[in-house]
Design brief:
The protein is of the alpha+beta class. The chain has one domain. It has a 3-stranded antiparallel β-sheet with strand order 7-8-9, covered by helices on one side. Helix 4 runs antiparallel to helix 6. The protein is extended and about 90 Å long. It starts with a helix and ends in a 5-residue tail after the last strand.
Length: 228
């Protein structure tokens, strides 16, 4: 455990020392490019064979493309010039061109809205997992419940799920303001935030980076268990 902790701490230092590495994230993919290798081996029942690493290749999909596909007025089908037009000959010998009107239907948008409503239809339920919570933990827990209800943060949860269903990810940032009050804001690609999570060799989160711009200046905020 100590060895893994030291490895993770060093990995976090290496990431922060080279900010371009903080922007590396696992892409969203679609469409498997299948290429069959020559495999003429025949085996009998119970016989072993040599293992082979996967050679599948995927086509990456940007979060901008997700948004274009979600909005009927921005879908690629509206700008596809491969749909042919038809020329019809009139009685006087002239021709008139019949152009097909293209229309994109909001199927994906409707599915996304229904899934989001299904997942967020009931109020959030909270559970304090600590079997023997300290007085400070009880105080934090009560404060979170109070602010969640008083500020109707279930609405933020709906926006978070909507963001995840729309562009693939989203995040809620909880923080204490200058008045020591708990507040939260949505980190969504639609609002200009790109989330770049970083995991250790076991797949556990060690650093969360948020990439955004303010005017001409670009920022990367990174969060780990101890520091911001």
């Amino acid at each position: 455990m100590e060895e893994l902790k030291k490895i993770n701490e060093q990995k976090v230092k290496d990431l922060i020392s080279k900010p371009e590495n903080l922007l590396v994230k696992k892409p969203f993919t679609r469409k498997i490019d299948i290429s069959y290798g020559q495999n003429n081996d025949k085996v009998t029942l119970g016989q072993n064979t040599i293992a082979a690493l996967p050679t599948l290749q995927y086509e990456t999909v940007s979060q901008e493309q997700f948004l274009r596909e979600l909005d009927p007025n921005g879908h690629n089908v509206l700008y596809d010039t491969n749909v042919p037009s038809i020329a019809m000959k009139l009685e006087d010998g002239s021709y008139v061109e019949i152009v097909h009107t293209k229309m994109a239907l909001p199927y994906q948008q409707n599915i996304k809205n229904k899934q989001t409503l299904h997942l967020c239809g009931n109020p959030m339920k909270f559970t304090l997992n600590s079997t023997n919570p300290t007085e400070k933990e009880q105080e934090y827990y009560s404060t979170i419940l109070k602010y969640w209800k008083d500020r109707n943060m279930d609405g933020l949860r709906y926006k978070l799920v909507d963001s995840q269903m729309s562009t693939g990810d989203g995040g809620l940032l909880f923080y204490f303001d200058e008045n020591n009050e708990i507040k939260a804001r949505l980190l969504s690609y639609k609002d200009g935030y790109v989330l770049c999570p970083h995991n250790d060799q076991n797949g556990d989160r060690i650093l969360e980076s948020v990439y955004y711009a303010n005017g001409d200046t670009q920022y990367i905020d990174s969060y780990d268990k101890e520091y911001f």
